[in-house]
Amino acid sequence: MRTAPTLLALTLDAALLRIATLRDLSRLPDHILFDLFRRTLSAGKLTEKVLKLFLATDCEEIILLVQLLNIKQPLIPAWQPFFSRFDIIVVKDPELAADLQIPSGFNVKVYTKSDIDGLLGATSINFSGHSCRYFGYLVSRKKYVISIDDNCLPAKDPAGMTVDAVTQHMVNLKTPATPFFFNTLYDPYRKGADFVRGYPFSLREGVECMLSCGLWLHNADYDPMTHVVKRNQRNTNYVDAVMTVPLGAMFPVSGINVAFNREVLGPVMFPGLRIRKEGKHRWDTLEDIWNGLCAKVICDSLGYGVKTGLPYVMRSDAEAGKALESLKEWEGVKVMDDVLPFFESLKLSRTAVTVDDCIKELAGIVRQKLAPKNAIFSKAADAMEEWTKLWKSHGAQNA
User: Fold this and answer.
1) Which of 82, 175, 339, 368 is most buried by its number of CB atoms within 10 A?
2) Of 131 and 332, the one with more pLDDT
3) Which InterPro entries match (predicted)?
4) Are strands 209-218 and 257-261 parallel, antiparallel or unpaired?
């Protein structure tokens, strides 16, 4: 005996028949919207006009599914309120064959492989994969740079408000950091916080913050082992906090959601470490981890600060991939066993008084102490030295 359809199912069927004539879906609850979207997709009725109708609802599940399925759309409105005021640099991965779909309403400059080759000529630095963003760092002429992965969208805070990642990154960078003494109320410069009892007054002015490391919801940034074990786990924990990473503490900087003061930190924001058989997924790479460790050591040495926490972005499952196959050949675990003790014990000389001085000295120490253990560190030192040359010739000019 066949079960009679529910009233909701009949309503969705009726909406599907009229989907091309509807003008507004924003009043529907998200779970009904998502069900209607899947039915529309299955019925082959997802036209450009209908896609815009669904995207205008700002339903996170729909936007994430659009990215996961790589549905080509002319406009994703989610970032427009936050990015449309600024200059945007898009660097197309040299190994990407498909044409880029650039939304309207943005001030965008697109760089391709021919632009990279034409400007830099022969260089040992590989700007493919996740490393292509560093070319954007090189050619930007702005004081501050914000970099967010292409599979990320604006997150919503616990109150349901869309997070303005740009503004929060700028707040982090433009307010002092406190690396020399930990404040148990985290960032004392945030509204509603302050320095706690016992915090030395001589340190309350803080220091300049040079690097802001945001976080993400939904798809966690795991290594291959953890991803295989927890492939269905999603991060839903929104922690409303910003903190300065203490002096001497190392942490994994991720290129997923990061901002920095380019005028000061530019010479150290480079793609240096490439592990063998590196793939297209974050779990295959260590270039942003290495970059972040170099930046943190240099900030510590020169008396600058680094913050982590807010802002959050929403990260999709676009990197689902085959983590198990990647795991068989991934050497990142062993590499980090050598890297972390090296950076924890590293002390740069007092004669290195600029970021450029520091990165040159650091490259020499890497070549001396790490390169004999693994050839990839020798190549990393080469890349660090090459980047300083590229920065002098192409990156040091300011707006």
Assistant:
1) 339
2) 131
3) RGP, RGP_fam
4) antiparallel
